[in-house]
Amino acid sequence: MRQLILGAAFAALMPLAAQAQDAAAGEKVFAPCKACHAFGKNGVGPDLKGVIGRKAGTHEAYNYSAAMKNSGLTWDEATFKDYIHDPKAKVQGTKMIFAGIKDDKKVADLIAYLETQK
C-alpha cells in the first residue's frame, strides 16, 4: 500500500518536474532577442542585464516609450510572463515590435536565463 501511495505521488509530481526552468534552453529562446537586446549595454532595445526585479522603463540612457515609462510595472516573473506572451497587449504603446512567445515552457526557460544575467 505504501509503495502504491508513493508511486501515485511521484506520478503526480512528474508534470511539475517537466516544467522546471532550464537556463540553457532559455539561452536558445533568447537568441532572436539578441537582434535588439544585450547584457551590459543598450541597443535597439534596453540593456537586459538584471532586468528581473527592475522597474519597467527605468534603465538609464535608454529612450523608453511614454507607455513603458508610465506602465507602473516591475519585471517579476509573473509580469514578464504576461508581457512576453503579448507585449503590445500588456503595454499598449510600447515600442517593442515583437509578436510574443506563447509557449509557457519557453517563457519559463527564458526567465531562468535572464535571471543568470545579473
UniProtKB/TrEMBL annotation:
Residues 21-118 form the Cytochrome c domain. Coiled coil: none annotated. InterPro entries: Cyt_c-like_dom, Cyt_c-like_dom_sf, Cyt_c_1A/1B. Gene3D superfamilies: Cytochrome c-like domain. Residues 1-20 form the signal peptide. SUPFAM superfamilies: Cytochrome c. Keywords: Electron transport, Heme, Iron, Metal-binding, Signal, Transport. It holds the Pfam family Cytochrom_C. PROSITE patterns: CYTC. This is Cytochrome c2. It comes from Methylobacterium crusticola.
